[in-house]
Amino acid sequence: MNSVSIIAFMTLLFSLQFVLWRHLLFAWRDERSLKSRLSYSQTNRWKRLLQEGSADKTKGWTMLRVIERHLTLLLETLQLRLSAASVLLLSLFLLLGGIAFGGYFFQTLKGTLLFGAALSSLPYMMLQAWLVHRRMQAQLDFLPAIELFYQCYLVTGERQVKIALQRAIDEKRLLGPMQAVFEQLYRNLSIREDDQESLSIFSSALGHVWADHFAEILRVALTEGVQISDSLRELLADMRKARRSNEQERNRLLEIRIANFSPLLFLAVFVGINIRYNSANAYYYYLVDPEGRDMLLNALILIVLSFLMGLWLSRKKL
Using an 8 Å Cβ cutoff, are 194 and 169 in contact? Predict the structure, then answer.
């Protein structure tokens, strides 16, 4: 076990202990705040000072703010009650744990760093995989949803987009995940001041070009107050013509998703066969021999890269 792994392991233990004590202190603070109004005000004052100091220190961390905003948009698109800081903290813990375990098991700098990087990328990959899965589920139901919105828009007098959205939601005829997506859009447009950000979340939740066109039509209607019935009619006509090609794209996406898990399946089959017929040699060459451990590391990295490539291709096909 090299010094990098030892440092990572000690840092992980210290971080876990820090988070535990921080949670206990905040719980104790909240309990005291319920008993004393004076301590409540004092605690808020110290908390505000700490937040102002931390905000001044992080003004130059542009990359961190970009990553935090990207994760916030991703979590809001998935409608998860998590914060970007929680995902980053979990990734940091996995990075430290991966470095510690990688140094202990592989005993090389390559294994230490690569295993830590692969383990820390798991939360983000899981979120992206869930987003692609939701987009595929909502792709077929988007056309009926736009048809329903178009009908509601005509019924309401072709004036108010938000009223048409509310009517489409209240009728409960949106199929599959489209009900939740349109409810989120209506809620964001009603609460948020920035309509562009609400429409960006809607486009990100669906992830295809038709959603971008529909969001652009809504943006024009909300900002300029013009009627969009002609634009909606043209959008519906183009979507009906492209339905056959969309079916072909869905078949390609299914092939990509099957290919994502094929390396993991082949690895499990080959390792299982070796363990079944000669467990002693399999244990030695997979776990004891350095070249065997390096082979397992290379297989793990290739599986992670193939999964990332599959996610990227899926996003492009959508």
Answer: no
DSSP state of 284: I
Q: Give the Cα separation of 174 and 166 in Å (integer).
A: 12
Q: In sequence order, what DSSP letters do the residues of 107-122 get, joined into one string?
A: -SHHHHHHHHHHHHTH
Distance CA 142, CA 57 (A): 45
Instruction: Single out the residue of 29, 56, 59 nearest to residue 45, CA to CA.
Output: 29
CA distance 249 to 268: 30
What does the chain come to in residues? Answer: 318
The closest alpha carbon to 287, from 97, 100, 104, 112, belongs to 104
**pLDDT tens sequence across 27-52:** 666 666 665 544 444 444 444 544 44
pLDDT of residue 45: 47
What distance in Å separates the CA atoms of residue 186 and residue 302, rounded to the nearest whole number? 42
Token look-up 């004590």 returns 21
CA distance 256 to 129: 12
Average pLDDT, the chain: 78
What is the tens place of the pLDDT at every residue in 212-234? 899 999 998 888 888 888 899 89
In one-letter notation, the amino acid at residue 149 is F
CA nearest 236: which of 154, 126, 130? Answer: 154
Residue 57 pLDDT class (50, 70, 90 cuts): very low
CA distance 95 to 233: 51
- Amino acid, res. 68: E
